[in-house]
Design brief:
The structure is a homotetramer of 267-residue chains. Chain A has 267 residues and is an alpha+beta fold. Chain A has two domains: 2-117, Roll (Urate Oxidase); 133-265, Roll (Urate Oxidase), CATH 3.10.270.10. Chain A has five helices and ten strands. In chain A, the strands form two sheets. In chain A, strands 1-2-3-4-5-6-7-10 form an eight-stranded antiparallel β-sheet, with helices on one face. In chain A, a hairpin with a 3-residue loop joins strand 4 and strand 5. In chain A, helix 4 runs antiparallel to helix 5 (203-217). The first copy, chain A, is globular and about 70 Å long. The two termini of chain A are 38 Å apart. The mean pLDDT of chain A is 96. Chains in contact: A-B, A-C, A-D, B-C, B-D, C-D. Strand 9 of chain B pairs antiparallel with strand 1 (2-7) of chain C.
Chain lengths: 267, 267, 267, 267
């Protein structure tokens, strides 16, 4: 479910454009077997709860608001043993007019999203934050050689290929006492800069280097998962038209793509 | 990746329209840490393998073909410890001309798909089959009352509401020696008929009844998972125009929807 | 905007699942130039109007209801000179239980939709009805040879290829006094049967034959437009694996596709 | 169809990520009526032509390349009387590493696209350029009052509402001798700045102001069309929970939305 919140307390309005996913787990056996709804909190009530909590509380970092939501659901619902709240934030930046940031007009920064997922029981909370739909591409410093050759191999070795992917990242924080905004910005920066600078022997290797960099530099992160589909750009064979193709003309394809995923944990 | 196969050996052509998802697990540590690709089977080769195996083998039941694929990957790749192959089949039926089935012209039966997923190690195979995107709706025999009331509750109790959902089902077979086609058709029939006939006190209860019916009647199935989002159709308040709405005019909404999921196992 | 209407007057409920698109044209100059909203009927009011009219009137054929809607908007809005109402109907059929049609449980028949578009002024109405997203495929009786060869031609001639397309059709009726349901069913049948039976030399030729057949057999139709993207299924080259491909293994692709469109009018 | 072109002639690689749509019109009657394909240039050949022309020519401004493409098709195909080429360019910017633009790593700037459409006959060319999927939002300086009240009106007047839209713009140039890149950037800037600064009485009025501003300031543009769906953000009624909502909590909805469109021409 979606929510837009505007904070108008300053001349420069703050805008939050959020999508919520709420999952409550517990003992719901008789709901299924007997149609006993006395323990069911309807989706509609969850939606209203989001609106009301959003009115009663500031939303600065989505992690804080998601924590507050899990606390609300656990406090008020004894039948619930675990609450999982996921928030996905669309990113808007201020429009510039005459070079200056506008106080209340915004432009959407594409598909990239900031995410958080809190998995909370009454004993323990796991705070995972991340990025979705971050699309990056490099035109060189990427190769793929030395792979298995079998009777069905037709892929040529490539010492210089395009590397395009849509990064999804999720990392686990070691505590609640973190500057979530600063940490998210830094993790994002480290992922993107490592992608750019890495001399890639495979998507797998670059993915690993990106995750390792985040783990090395951000001590408040104990674990990171990365998903990076290989969005292939195939060099077009122009020899049929008596032309060469000096790594210049490519056909981007959606299917098939290798889906590369891994989780790195601090040792 | 997609594949269409046409069997032309009879006057009545057979058509298979399949989508494949292949996942190979094993020891790929040095791929990530050192860029050593010597154990990597490229996506491109997997794609070629599907084409070649599809040429060399009949594809009647997708379960048999997926089993054959996992065997291929495990036999030829010592570095792989587990192969997971998922096949999704789009369903076409023959066009009728003058009331008779046409030998080679087909019409697509919407979004509904037949699926299978084989998870195979060298020791063990798990065969899961199912249905995706089966959209059903009933206009009565569905209510939702007796749920939790809290300060944020606004949903009225409904003794007669529309129940619309998009069923995704997956069930686990007890053996490889099964008539997969007949069993799929029967499981599908049982799910749909139970949905239609059930006097529903909640989506959860109907989901449970559907799964239970399949487990009761098909001994070759040991476990079934169902996912049934509640695609709400809200009665429109026409009192603002001095009209009643005797459960007749509805607004279907996409968001928010309750996502109801459960897995039933033979006890 | 969407609307679901249930008619419960018989034991066998009737279900309509409709999507509306309403466009009002007229003299709206000062709305744009001066911000004068006194002639603007808000989208929200149009939505309410659909609900209220749907409550007050039976909806059997979407054409009749769309006509009624254009009349409503033209009668009540002197500033409007032309009203265009498009209705798209999702098609549901009854679930069968023990071989008998169920009175109130339905299953959706895929993506195919019945459509109508009424363009009405105070003087004249144009009634266009049609089909959207009708996906059909034939495995033989389709070729494509004799096309232009130029320096960039690589497509081989094909005397026997797969022909897959998603038909969108729209036809214009000569009058309001038509059995719209029967005519729609017949036009649909003629399109599909012609697709199946036609020995196709090109998508263009089959499209023409389909439209011609409808014009020849349905005198209440004066004009028909067809859009049929060529959803290519490319034969896979298996010679690299020392296999032949006797027109059996295909790769369906989304892009690029030729988009073939034409309008036929009675001479 | 898609094409990625990389220009590697400098250390700072240039990247073009383009989607093409090609439409050839002419006398194709016998193609339809007789299956005579001798005048048909297959889609596959058009695709190859794009690759070959992209290899043979620099692609700096998409307008220049689209012009060149229409010239190619008209020169080589006497049966074609009109060629329409549309190019849609996805926008990538350089990744910054340590504050400096990276020479060959890029990040995608969301959904926004630069477009051009050339409609060319042997006598005349119309050059239209524009923007697609530019998503903007303002949190104040937007109202909607004074609209028609009828029996189905429930929308309250709003003196301060959220205004969110996805701009699609297309403008016609007066000549081929234009700095297309500079003009596109300026037209885009004028549209966005006017959206931000305008005190909006309706979407229609703001749309008009945006178009008027471009026509006033860019003499090389003779006509501009704008399409701006009203992506409603509805204030949530929190009074049910004994809370106020001081224009702070909103529900963004996809449907229904008013689709506001207009074309402005220099008088």
């Amino acid at each position: 479910m979606r929510l837009v919140k505007v904070n108008r307390s300053n001349e420069y309005h703050e805008l939050k454009d959020l999508n919520f996913n709420i999952q409550l787990e517990g003992d719901f056996l008789t709901v299924h077997t007997e149609g006993d709804n006395s323990k069911v909190l309807p989706t509609d009530t969850m939606k209203n709860t989001v609106y009301a909590l959003a009115r009663q509380n500031d939303i600065v970092e989505i992690e804080k608001f998601a924590l507050l939501m899990t606390e609300h659901f656990l406090s008020n619902n004894p039948q619930v043993s675990r609450a999982v709240v996921k928030i996905t934030e669309k990113i808007w930046r201020r429009i510039k007019v005459d070079g200056k940031s506008h106080p209340h007009a915004f432009i959407q920064c594409g598909d990239e999203k900031r995410t958080t997922k809190i998995k909370a029981t009454r004993e323990k909370k796991i705070i995972e934050s991340g990025i979705d739909d971050l699309m990056v591409l490099k035109t060189t410093d990427s190769g793929f050689v030395g792979f298995i050759k079998d009777p069905f191999t037709t892929l040529p070795e490539a010492t210089d290929r395009i590397f395009a992917t849509i990064v999804r990242a999720g990392w686990v924080y070691t505590s609640e006492e973190i500057d979530f905004g600063e940490c998210w910005n830094e993790a994002r920066r480290l992922l993107i800069e490592t992608f750019a600078a890495h001399n890639s022997l495979s998507v797998q290797q670059t993915l690993y280097a990106m995750g390792e960099r985040v783990l090395n530099e951000r001590k408040e992160i104990s674990e990171i998962s990365l998903s990076m589909p290989n969005k292939h750009c195939l060099p077009v064979d122009l020899s049929r038209f008596e032309m060469d193709n000096p790594n210049e003309i490519f056909l981007p394809i959606d299917e098939p793509h290798g889906l590369i995923e891994a989780t790195l944990r601090r040792g």
